[in-house]
Amino acid sequence: MEQNSFVNRRCCLTCLTLLLLAGGEWHPVRAADSPAKFYRGLNLNGPAVVIDDQQWEGQDASNYTCNGKAFDNQSVPLKPPTDRQRARMIRSSRWGGDIDVELKNVPAGMHQVLLYVWEDNDAETYDILLNDRVVVKRFNSGTAGTWKRLGPWKIEVRDGSIKLSARGGAANLSGIEVWSGEGAIPQPESAQFASTPTDEQLAFFEKRIRPLLVERCYECHSASSKEIGGSLLLDSHPGIVKGGDNGSPIVPGDPEASLLMMAVRYTNPDLKMPPDKKLSDAEIADLAAWVTLRAPDPRTTSTVVPRKTIDVTEARTRWPFAPVVDPQVPTVRDVKWPRGDIDRFIRAAQEAKGLEPVGDADRRVLIRRATFDLIGLPPTPDEVMAFVDDAAETPTAFAKVVDRLLESAQYGERWGRHWLDVVRYADTAGDNSDYPIPQMVKYRDWVIAAFNRDLPYDQFIRDQLAGDLLEGHGDRNPHVIATGYIALARRFGSRVDDYPQHLTIEDTIDNLGRAFLGLSLSCARCHDHKFDPISTDDYYAVYGIFQSTRYPWPGIELEKRQRDLVPLAPDDVVAAATRERKAKLAEFDAELKRLDEEKKSAGDGQKEELDKRIGSTRKLRDELNNSPLPFDTAYAVSEGMKIENARIQIKGNPEKTGDEVPRHFLSVLGGQTLAPDEKSSGRRQLSDWIAAPDNPLTARVMVNRIWLHHFGQGLVATPNDFGKQGRPATHSELLDWLSRRFVESGWSVKAMHRLMMNARTYQLASAELGARSAEREDATPN
Description:
Distance between the termini: 111 Å
Helix content: 25-40%
Number of strands: 19
Strand content: 5-15%
């Protein structure tokens, strides 16, 4: 008996410690009533309505106060569509930056509260509070027409009052539901399409509706349409149920809430269908009657929006998507002028246009040019004199200067800077608070070191895209740091819980395309690329790779704490430090709980002192929680917690998704796919696909960048865009020849410097091309 008593006491204590935070108030867990009972519904700015067979009060009801401004706009199409009464309630709301709604004379006991909110215009962000405690932080209202039924939030009413508030951006609060008890609350009823049409209904459809759809709608809204408007198909019942970009056009049984009826009635100036000529009143009435009957339809065979295909085979025949060729070095008439093959390409082009080259640069000019190009600084007087004297005696004097400069530590700083400009490097987050990232300097230093040691460019790519996933490289830390390239993608806004991660991924893909491939991939985010052979499927195939990647959180003004940085310490050190931090935070939590309990029974004179102790303890806890753990970290990426394919975002809107797209590479560049059982993000494979020797763009793009910084203009004048909207290559054969030498050199950037700078073309004087005199023909450098 004593043992049983002990067990019972222990169980009771355990139950008392299991508490739920509901509306900011703590209450013990109890067995849920089944079901909860509807207590009250309140339309905050409209008449009484019946919703889900429950009678709601209107704005003239008693026992509540609301300080929000009245707003009503019944013409905005709701997303998702809903029944007429609910839509009427939603689109009549109270709005403002600081709204308070207080329900009075609420019976004591457990209640559950739900709140309807909506957006009539541009997205707003605000907090929602229940009895002055935040229950939804930084809620984003979404695009125009979006509505949500938030909650339920449990709250124990003791003083007869329930208060709901919105703080921050302009909120639209439409209605409030209150249910008594803790049991399950039924989901809102949804309108259902007619599942078993009667013979009379089918006859009505065949006689009045089908001919109307065929004659006036199919041109733009059938699978055979040349261009399907809004991705909406009206040539099948499943197509209507699925809907298009704006959801289903029909709310079964409710013509007034249906987008189809709004369109054909021309009630919305931005939504008029058919656009050329309005339907007759009789035709509109027939459609309204059909919707009222819940759209009976015998066309059960589903039609689908045909996927556009890009002719990648044809695209691969066109430069720059055609394979890199190794062109024959041209012969020239002026055989004495060239010093190497680059010169032969240039001289042949000059001869074809009847041009003569200028003379060679003065030696002092030449060493200044080379020194500025390679280290960004002028040569010293001693270096100038040494070169002038050496050049008079040694034909290889300039080659020795180039080699000396390439071995200088300043070389990596100069050429690392060029790369950091390409990848939009900053040691801040780039959001509106531009929060500092002290660890970002590690990536900068990695880039500088990579150029100084002439890290092969293909490995340079692999490290930045997947350094954390590569094996067999000894010290793993530098390779992890290299993925700072992905991590430094721009951050947007000052939001935490609802951070728009899709924008950061889009920025990653945009720079990936421009930096490594010379392509504007972001143009395919909302639709197939208008000019280049890149489909929306291709875009979201790559998107899925970065969606499966975990980015670090840099911290912002609203949350001054970094998260998800990658440790640069052994696993056991990281685990021990993490355990110690959790233990210290738990001690602070226990102390705060003890002080809160002490305050409940304290007298008025003691409460002030206890508040000070609580405040100082909470401050110490926050400082500890926001401070970095005692080991080095990198602002880098790692594998995501969830590995998955992405879905197409219709018109680039993450709230409207379409088909899932398997992760793969751009179709025009090979379209390689991940294995079906691949458990990783796919970044390692992506780095291999980009750095492959047979990728027609990678070597061309980098060689063009090197040429640009030596000659002032690239062989392609738009180094970030090799596509149709960019400038065409002026010397495509020379660029291909250089690209082949680049790969053959083991992707050595320094080898390309030597090849370009030792050419006579680089060493010419800075003067206009003109007729060359006979005296200059055999001239030697001064």
